[in-house]
Design a protein that fits this description.
With 411 residues, the chain is α+β, with helices and mostly antiparallel strands. It is built from 10 helices and 15 strands. The strands form 4 sheets. The protein has a 5-stranded antiparallel β-sheet, with no helix packed on it. A 4-stranded mixed β-sheet has the order 2-1-3-4, sandwiched between helices.
Length: 411
């Protein structure tokens, strides 16, 4: 189900598994209602009792011995969250059973009520799986508690230098982006290089195999590194003024035959990533000067930033490539004020590179517009419309049959 259920892969980990579990539970509830109320009238009381008994035993065992295997379950916040989710699931499953029973009822009032309840439950379930995680009211200071000074430091850095990332290092090695799991609870500047996605992209994971820690953090626009010592538990914050800005203009580009060759030169220091952008020769083979020409440098500025749509104002004095510290992903498109499209290439293995083919100035509109989104919306919309038409047709046909039966009875 995880691999084919529409949209599940785009949810964050807790939500996507809850969505899969809810889909399975809905199927089971529908089957149980059909078994009990359908024409077959299956006798499933004994089997259901065994299943419920086993579930109760497992639940009791989990409550008694669960903290031995997962100590974090003893935390008050985790326990409260788990309790809420369990009761939500119980109410959802009971509500679905009642709703489906109402839909099968002979009386029209019960059928309409069952359908209405089903819609309400589905919307509530979507909120639990999506809105709860994405629209919380937790502040950075509350989340970090004793270490909220890190958030203050980070926000001051963003005000001075523009969009900058906030990453955590464990014993000197890059571990994760500190706000990976609570991005919407803070602000949009905490996002990971994946941008609108929290998926382990193959190119991103390949890039993070870099052993050159400085290059790894600089290219990922990490302006504040949170160092944590796993033995002592000491946490300290370090500003990194050396990190690259979110967008950079490169007048020099070096084509490579493979990602492995780019990573090799980044690890050894043979590639000066501050002056030369690395691209794949199969995507961009145009020769650019090894060093930018003397004179005033080209300028770029990030405008109206969001995860799915932002703008870049540029003044290019030579042809070049605009590097964006955000993962390259199919579905992004770049256009200027006239609607002309600009080529996107892989830069430094995993990131976006916007090709500026000639000198000039303008404003680029960068949008995430995947064809799969519009195709899926068209299929969903068309299916919903077809189901509405089908439902109306079936309803009218049943009404006509009822009228015929009533008329015949009167005769």
């Amino acid at each position: 189900l995880y691999h084919w259920l529409p949209g599940i892969a785009l949810f964050r980990s807790p939500s996507r598994m809850a969505g899969v579990a809810d889909c399975c539970a809905a199927i089971l509830v529908a089957w149980l209602v059909e078994a009990v109320t359908g024409p077959m009238r299956l006798r499933i009381g004994r089997a259901a009792a065994v299943g419920i008994g086993l579930y109760a035993l497992v639940g009791a065992g989990w409550l008694v011995w669960g903290t031995r295997f997962y100590p974090e379950l003893s935390a008050v916040a985790v326990a409260a969250f788990a309790k809420t989710q369990v009761w939500t699931a119980v109410l959802l499953f009971m509500g679905l059973a009642v709703s489906l029973w109402g839909l099968r009822h002979q009386r029209r009032l019960w059928r309409w009520t069952g359908g209405g309840v089903l819609v309400v439950l589905l919307c509530f379930d979507l909120y639990q799986a999506y809105g709860f995680f994405y629209q919380g009211e937790v502040s950075p200071a509350a989340y970090y508690q004793t270490n909220h000074w890190l958030v203050d430091k980070y926000q001051g850095l963003v005000r001075r230098n523009g969009p900058t990332r906030f990453a955590q290092l464990e014993d000197g090695r890059f571990g994760q982006f500190a706000m990976d799991r609570v991005i919407p609870l803070v602000e949009r500047n905490f996002e990971t290089p994946q941008g609108a996605f929290d998926l382990p992209l193959q190119k991103t994971m390949k890039f993070r195999q870099l052993t050159n820690e400085t290059a790894l953090l600089d290219l990922q626009n990490v302006g504040l590194a949170v160092h944590r010592n796993s033995k002592t538990g000491v946490v300290r914050g370090e500003e990194r003024p050396s990190c690259l800005p979110r967008v950079v203009f490169y007048a020099a580009a070096q084509p490579y035959a493979s990602d492995a060759a780019i990573l090799r030169d980044l690890n050894t220091g043979a590639l000066d990533y501050r002056r030369v952008v690395a691209v794949l020769s199969e995507e961009f083979s145009t020769a650019l000067p090894a060093l930018p020409p003397a004179g005033a440098p080209s300028e770029v500025e990030l405008l109206k930033q969001s995860q799915e749509h932002y703008q870049i104002r540029y003044h290019a004095r030579t042809p070049g490539i605009i590097f964006v510290s955000e993962s390259y992903y199919p579905g992004w498109e770049v256009r200027d004020e006239t609607g002309q499209r600009f080529q996107l290439v892989h830069a430094f293995v995993a990131f976006k590179g916007i090709v500026i083919s000639k000198a000039g100035r303008g404003t680029l509109d960068v949008r995430f517009r995947p064809k799969s989104l519009f195709l899926g919306a068209s299929i969903t919309g068309g299916t919903a419309l077809a189901l509405v038409v089908l439902y109306i047709w079936l309803f009218r046909r049943e009404q006509r049959r009822n009228d015929e039966v009533t008329n015949n009875a009167r005769r």
